[in-house]
Amino acid sequence: MCAPDRLLERRDTLELLAAEAARARTGSGRLIVLRGATGTGRTALLEAAAEQAAAQGMRVLRARCSPEHTSIPLDTVYQLLAHAPEFDAVAGEAPDPPGTPPHRGRSARLWRLLRSYADETPLLIAVDDAHLADAASRRWLVEAVRWIDRLPVLLVVTERSQYDIDPPADGLAHALSSALVHTRTLAPLRPDSAAELIRSVRVGDTAPEWVADCVRAGAGNPLLLSALLDDLQSTDQDTLPDTCAALYPGSYAAAVSWWLDSAGPATTEVARALAALDEDGPGTADADLLARTAGADPGRVPGWLTAMTRLGLLRPDPEGRPRYAHPLLRDAVLGGWSSAARQRAHRRAAEAMLRRGDHAEAVAGQLLRAGPVGDTWATAALLDAADLAARDDRSDDALAYLRRALDEPIPPARRAAVLTELGSLEYATVRSTAGIPRLAEAMRLPGPPRDRVRAAVALGTALARRGEARAAIDVLRGLRDEHLTGHPDLARTAQTASALLSDHDQGVRQEVYRWLRETAERSPDLVGTAGQALLVRYESTAGLTSAESAMDRVRALLAQPADPLEEAFLPGTAAAVAQWADQLDEAERLVRRGLAGQRTSLLHPMHTALLNVRIDLAAARGAYDEVLADPEVRRPDGTPPTSANAVANAVVALVETGRTEEAARLADGFDLQNAPDSWELNRFLYARGVLHTALGDPAAALDDFLECGRRQSARDVVSPVVTPWRTAAAECQLALGRPREALALAEEDLCLARVWNTPRVLGRALRTLATATGGRRGLHLADRAVRILRQDAHTPPRTEAEPHGGTPGEAPYAAAAEPLCGTPDRTPDEIAANREGTDRGSPGTDRGTLSTDRGTPSADRGMLSADRGTPGAAETELIAALTAQGRLLTAAGERARARDALREAAARAERLGAVRARAAAEEALREGGARRTTTALTGPDALTAGERRIAELAAQSRTNTEIAELLHLARRTVETHLTSTYRKLGIRRRSELRAALAPPTDPPP
Q1: Mean pLDDT of 879-902
Q2: What per-residue confidence (pLDDT) applies to 793?
Q3: Are 32 and 182 in contact (CB under 8 A)?
Q4: CA dihedral for 963, 965, 966, 972, sign (positive or negative)
């Protein structure tokens, strides 16, 4: 490492000094004042000038002032003249008595001594740090300047010139004529010069980023730069550290400490206060807060900040507020401050911010770094900040505020609420066992009954998620029986929470819902609106009610007034029922309402339920990109999803979009052995079965589907609205050559689907039964499935090829299942004959035939009168039904109609991004001897009319909400269309729409 150039950017000043020395040698001296901030190289320049003068034959007299000698009269003068024999006689004299004339006292005799030196040879008097000279010496030097203009004497002094919090004393030249004085101020090094200095010292290649960091840490100050380079000479790090602990031997930290000492205690306090506040990030400190925190003169602090910015030690952030130029410099400023002093500064800052009305989180940020305050204002500030952070889903910040709040005085009743929230957050964000002790402590503390219910619900939720559903129910029952006897509304809330948490355990669920149903029959008021909604959900999954009836009951319950604690359970329950009933827009509104009413920092069973419905809604629409982008799947911290339902939906989405390898990795990474025994596990088994099917392993898939069905049936969940395991298992049975078993599963599923009576489940069940049945009768069933699903998808029936055996305009919800429920099974030979296309009679006369002239049952007519759901609610099932219809038409020899159905299926799958479904439709086309459709499936020509209309409005910078209002659509529908549009156009951002929609320009001739 080479020695740094100590006179970089100082050569012009050195030349000035040489010229002044030459002038003095002719008998005309003067005073040269070299001014500059601490560390700008004043001393080095003075030494260079002295060496230069000595080389020219001048006698050099030196003195260096220090704060330790300011009380010694004429100490500086004595340093200058101490080397002459005559000096001893003068120095040994007693001090002049008061009133001694100037021309007769000791100062006069010292002046005459100096003149005698000048008579012998020209003099250069070098005084370093003259601002620290004693008062008598300063007077003597000022008086000498008035005479040396006629003597061969050049007086060169250095003075510290830096804006400090404490105003400095007048400089040496303050009372002198400008003709007698030449002042030169030394500025910090320019960035390019500082970089040159660094590169000249550092051996080898230096990265530009590393050099730039060194320039910022050195602030253009030669002292700090030299010290930093001294510390870096023994290391070859590619990055500059942010802490002085990584530097050796510590020259940089020592230089910064000396810089602070030179500035004085008031400036040091402000500098350290700024460094402490700078820990909180950009935009924290300002002049007013610094002054309050450091106890400094508020009139001087703004000027100090400006001066330090000009010196390069500070740099403004994007908001214009001051920050240290580099974290290493800030760390060095803090280095000499004790931890207790820092905490006191943060407390003063918190109090100052509170008094002037700063944001609660700004105040709390200071309290996090302060010791316990012991006052209620600190408690209030921390809890307010925690509330704001929790509402913004910043769990880590909320945790820090709540933990710190426990160090401050909190009334026992309020403490229980704080512990409940803290325990909930710790459970959700730290680890599953972390928050339970906090929640248990909250349960033990006295407090209002509502807070105790919240604590019990949170603790029960945590226990149930760990697989301890029985313990969770015991907690809630114990609270209800011991503390809520006089609070029937709160008792109902506890019972509702018990019912919801019982989903995590098969035996507990049967017990809880048995009690709930029996109580509701005797005294509905004891169950409450939320409990009745849970019963609707139970009956929906148990196959005991229709979708129309369930929605009527749920809507009536939502219209009733409810207690705030009970209200938290209603939207999620209603949303699940609405999603099953194909009312996807209504379900989405309920999810938004429920999540908006949930406090995410409190553990609540309904929060997870709402998140599950949200992702189920995306899956129901076939919005696979939305499923994979859901926060429960793509977690912000990059970790794999932990919710079994999220994993299940993600696996299916990956399979349907042709990414089976990713789906397999995700499924294999799920810890099935240690997963809680909840309904979500059944979803995972179903999803894994879908994966096995896609991988060509129907036997493994069948095992998963049957196990899913077994577990669901044990929980009284028999309706296909939750997971269509029967239809999936029937397809596996067919693949394995077991038509009888497939037919039994398909017929059972259709009977249950007819009870629920929505297009999605009816169409799916009819499609599966059609495939299992085969022949003309199977084709008739497939036609009916397509007709039902097509009308639900809000697309008109095809006029070029009406479904077999139907007429245009026929009601889509016919009594398709009625002849199949409770009729004898046909023999395997009959089934096989039908699958081979043997025509045993016309569709109207075949045994078990679904005659179209029987009319529509009242239940079906009832569903027709209701809202049939959002477009896309049955889209994925329609694609599968069209594919099944196309295969059956091909088998029946109706190849033209088959091609129409299969090409429509492929086109719909393409728009949906359903790679697997599209591949199935195209495979069926090839098997039928048809070519793949040439219709454009990507690019602007692939857009539907609705997609193009929405895309054009979006390209005009309209928001999704504005487009939805303009076209009278749901916002979700707009988002779905835009997602499909982006995929077809191959773009990712809204800003790319205009260019992507523009027609291609012809190339120049």
Answers
A1: 93
A2: 59
A3: yes
A4: positive
